[in-house]
Amino acid sequence: MVSSTDLSAFGRKATLSETTNHGPALAFGNGKLFLAWNGLDQRLMVSSSADGVTFTPAVRLAHTSSTSPGLLFANGKLFLVWRGTDAGGHLNVIDSADGVTFANNVTSPEERAFRPALASVDGLYFVWTGLVPGRNINVRVGATPATLANKQTFSDGSQASPALVAFTGSLRLSWSGTDAPAHLNLAILSSQDEPSLGDSFVKLTPDLSLSDWFSPWNTQQLNAADNDLGSGGILLLPGTSLLVGGGKEGKLYLLDVVHLGHVCATCHDPAGDTQIVQWFQATGTSRGTMPPPQGTHHIHGSPVFWNSRSGGPRIYVWGEADWLRAFRFNGATFDVAPVDISDVTTPPNSMPGGMLSISAQGDQDGTGIIWAAHPIRDNANQAVVDGMMQAIDAGNLKRVLWNSTSNPADAVGKLAKFTPPTVANGRVYVATFSGKSVCLRPSGLTLRSRREREGAALLKGPPQTCYRAEDLCAFFENVTAYSALRYSKKARARRESLAHHSWPTRVQADRRVPSLVTVFQLRAVTATLRFFSTNPWTFGAARIPSGHHW
Question: How high is the pLDDT of residue 11?
């Protein structure tokens, strides 16, 4: 043992006659320095010193431990904590007023792999590393060892014993991570704070403080393999207290928002997370005897929901290198086998899968459309690639109503990853990485195949007035707008009447071209188009009925 006043120069070394195979523990209180260790026979030993050099004869306890003990002096008592040598390696705590006589032994049902740690701030905090596979960090809090409760299991794991100390009114926790380099981690710990929730669904209060959370039981393995839950979003199921979401493992988790479930330290394959409402493998499974395309089948977007009259409530999800799938909701859980599945897939070995939106006229059958954005052929992981849009019948996923590759003029440009289409006012807005956002009027889309023509009824509606994108330039600076529009002689005359404006435009006249409007600032569209309602260009085109809900 050595001492220091500045943490740089150490001296006054004291070598005791006692021997141990494990590290000792220190605590200070009542003017004494207390030292605890386990001997070569695993018996726990305690000694004290008034000067840090000369120690009293060791007190040998009847209790044994195969790892180093922990020691804390708080509220006039010395607390000794250790991992027992019983089959489960259970946590034990005992206290003493003088460091000589110990009593009030409490054995916890918890099992652990390494030495626990303890500290005191408005109560006793006991921290330990759980058993494999996750080796999650766990905490119990109580006024005394006998009242330890409020167990919290964190998503973080450790390869060794954690360290805990009270500092400036809060607790500081340190641990060795389970990542390959085993980085050291530090966190402020209190009854309201969690060390890390980067691989979790979290629930926040209106003031953004943490209310509840969920992490998968195997979160450490997911992090190590870059299969984190955080890759996907969540969907709140209408009319329920449930939410559903997934991540790179391709699983969907159904959670109750009243109690999300935290992390299950005792869960493992094949049962998985048993503390939540449901989980199931949603992507990467075969379609009959046909395996999915080669790839990772990650989920990167949120599912979408529709409750049709004949089909009932169902969600839709489209993973990487996978088919678009629909899962029926029975009011409490999901049927784990898809109720519907598409013929088309996202490209093999591609990322990020299909980013989805849905439009429909309420629950009316035959009006639901899945709008999906995904790569045409390439992998968008750390790359910018060509993207495409598809419109698929939500009541029959085998019916592709339209896709943007059918006509070269319908191309949407470079894919904006993780960005679902926005459906509003009978139009579909698509962000891109091509320096533009694309506005699609479904009535003007080219329906070339028989299947697309058969599904065209879903894309029809009453005539729509369309406003020129270049009109936006008169009122918003630094907006570049281009339009490719079908227009009549009457529309051409209206254009000539506004010729004194220097609006950049590219117009292809007197022949069929796709109804695409490209603008940079979509935020300005709604208010500006309303302003120009007295001066429209009318194209006599159809759109999705305004009564649709999305």
Answer: 63
Rounded Cα distance, 314 and 308, in Å: 8
Q: Which two tokens stand for residue 70?
A: 């922990």
Residues 424, 548: contact at Cβ < 8 Å? no
CB 276 within 8 A of CB 263: no
Q: What is the domain partition of the chain in residue ranges?
A: 25-198, 204-430+446-460, 464-542
Give the span between the Cα atoms of 313 and 411, in whole angstroms: 33
Name the 3-class secondary structure at 495: helix
Distance CA 479, CA 500 (A): 18
**Which one-letter amino acid corresponds to residue 410?**
D
| Strand 149-157, strand 234-236: pairing | unpaired
Mean of pLDDT values over 274-282: 96
pLDDT tens across 350-359, in order?
999 999 999 9
Q: In what order do the strands lie in the sheet with 149-157?
A: 117-120, 124-129, 136-142, 149-157
Please enumerate in sequence order all residues whose Cβ is within 8 A of that of 261, keeping only pairs 6 or more positions apart, or say none: 214, 255, 273, 275, 276
Cα separation, 432 vs 519, whole angstroms: 11
Instruction: For residues 69 and 80, give the distance between their C-alpha atoms in angstroms, rounded to a whole number.
Output: 7
Handedness of CA 490, 491, 493, 498 (dihedral sign): positive
> Do 396 and 375 contact (CB within 8 A), yes or no?
no
The Cα 370–Cα 390 span in angstroms is 8
Q: Give pTM, 2 decimals.
A: 0.60
CA angle centred on 141, ends 136 and 146, rounded to 5°: 115
- CATH 2.115.10.20 for the 25-198 domain, yes or no: yes
